[in-house]
Design brief:
136 residues, alpha+beta, two-stranded antiparallel sheet, 3 helices, 2 strands, 15% strand
């Protein structure tokens, strides 16, 4: 993989609406956030204390899950930027794999429920193939 400084274009491109919000949210998250927010409001209105507490906490959690904060992109010789928040749990070489069409490097990143669940593109390129492997 050859890359040069400047190949990180598009790393954190977001919609203009996302930049204007106090907490930038991934647009896909609103289909979960809005119903929870409405249900929280209804439960508060009808004084359903336990339900309103549960729904409010869940709403806050979902907002946190779908947040999309700006990221500072480091630049420099030999720097590799992770596409996601989380912990790198494995880096291994893959020899002649049919999926990759040759030798490759597999990097596994674990995202906890508290990590930002946005995958960014730290390396400019074109997706040629997507293969979904069912989890264990």
């Amino acid at each position: 993989m050859d890359w040069e400084e400047g190949d990180l274009k598009g790393y954190s491109e977001r919609s203009e609406e996302s930049h204007k919000m106090p907490i930038p949210i991934v647009s896909d998250g609103f289909r979960f956030i809005i119903p929870l927010f409405i249900l929280s409001g209804i439960s508060i209105y009808f004084c359903l204390t336990v339900l309103s507490i549960i729904l409010s906490i869940l709403t806050i959690f979902v907002i946190g899950f779908f947040r999309d904060p700006e990221r500072e992109i480091p630049t420099g010789e030999g720097i590799v930027v992770s596409p996601a928040d989380g912990k790198v749990v494995k880096i291994q070489g893959v020899k002649g794999d049919a999926i990759y069409g040759g030798d490759a490097v597999c990097i596994s990143i674990f995202l906890s429920i508290f990590n930002v669940h946005v995958n960014r593109a730290p390396y400019e390129g074109v997706i040629k193939k997507v293969v979904y492997n069912h989890g264990k």
